[in-house]
Design goal:
3 domains; Arc Repressor Mutant, subunit A; 5-stranded mixed sheet; 295 residues; alpha/beta; D-Maltodextrin-Binding Protein, domain 2; globular
Length: 295
């Protein structure tokens, strides 16, 4: 069987990521017809249909969904090798991509004791991150299911705890709060799990089920913390994220109940970068800190 041209693989990866031959063509500097032709060549080579084509819309088939993560990972590895060969040595800096919810409250404080932090570049980004496109070397995120073909290291599984500002009017417990005093966090359509007050009350053995439409609604953990700190109500936040705020007295836990989160916080990196000394050192440092219980 003849070797498959790299252009066909790149065309498929770009189209699968963008969901469009037109956008893939704009990224690669070719026409959408050229992208479609390259994808067709890949399908013929594999003997599998990778996209369902419906007019101008394309959707990955089961075969396409199965092969895409491996191709994306392979292109990431190839980009890493190319960088090394061009530079004649490993890149000096390590680009770390972090989800917003733990960037400021856990990851950055964790760097205080890391000797190699001067060699890091930190970016705060939402999932998914495409390593080969975005230039990231290491990813800290919630759950590793979006990166099945990369190296993954579980750090810790957090718990949702209820927090309020000191002196908030909840002497009778959270079950007595008015509906408007509950802050609801919606992480968006990419997440199957959310910080749910209904689930938290069920875990606490209480019958209260606050109406998600009655209180303040925010889109990030950082906003939930800020809203609670401002005295706008009670928020559900990850325990480790809120630890420093609680220890400093800026927030309090009015109830001891906690709701386990569905996924681990994980580190993810391309397998081709596993031998980088700075990456290995940072992974070991964060692993050791993850074993320290929250405040």
């Amino acid at each position: 069987m003849p070797a498959l041209p790299l252009n066909a693989i790149r065309a498929f990866e770009a189209a699968a990521r963008a969901g469009s031959f037109v956008q893939a063509g704009a990224e690669l500097g070719v026409t959408s017809a050229a992208v479609s032709q390259q994808v067709r060549a890949l399908e013929d080579h594999l003997g599998k249909r990778l996209f369902l084509r419906q007019g101008n819309r394309i959707t990955l088939t089961d075969a396409g969904r199965a092969v895409y993560p491996r191709i994306e990972a392979a292109l990431t590895d190839l980009a890493a090798v190319t960088d090394e060969m061009r530079a004649g040595r490993m890149r000096a800096r390590l680009v770390v991509s972090v989800i917003p919810s733990v960037a400021e409250w856990w990851f950055l404080p964790a760097l205080k004791g890391f000797a190699g932090r001067a060699g890091l570049e930190v970016r705060v980004e939402d999932d998914p991150v495409v390593f080969s496109r975005d230039g990231a070397d290491l990813r800290l995120t919630y759950g590793g299911h979006l990166y099945p073909d990369h190296q993954t290291e579980a750090l810790f599984r957090d718990r949702f705890v209820a927090v309020t500002a000191p002196g908030a009017p909840c002497a009778g417990g959270l079950e007595t709060l008015p509906e408007a005093a509950f802050i609801h966090t919606d992480w968006g359509a990419s997440f199957a799990t959310q910080p749910s007050w209904a689930a938290w009350f069920a875990a606490a053995g209480l019958s209260r089920r606050p109406d998600p439409l009655a209180g303040l609604r925010v889109g990030t953990t950082g906003l939930a913390l800020a809203a609670a700190r401002a005295g706008l109500g009670a928020a559900l936040v990850p325990e480790r994220v809120a630890g420093a705020e609680i220890a400093a007295g800026r927030l309090v836990r009015p109830e001891p109940a906690a709701l386990p989160m569905a996924w681990d916080y994980v580190l993810v990196w391309p397998r081709a970068l596993a031998r980088r000394a700075l990456l290995r050192d940072l992974v070991a440092h964060l692993r050791a800190l993850s074993e320290v219980p929250p405040v």
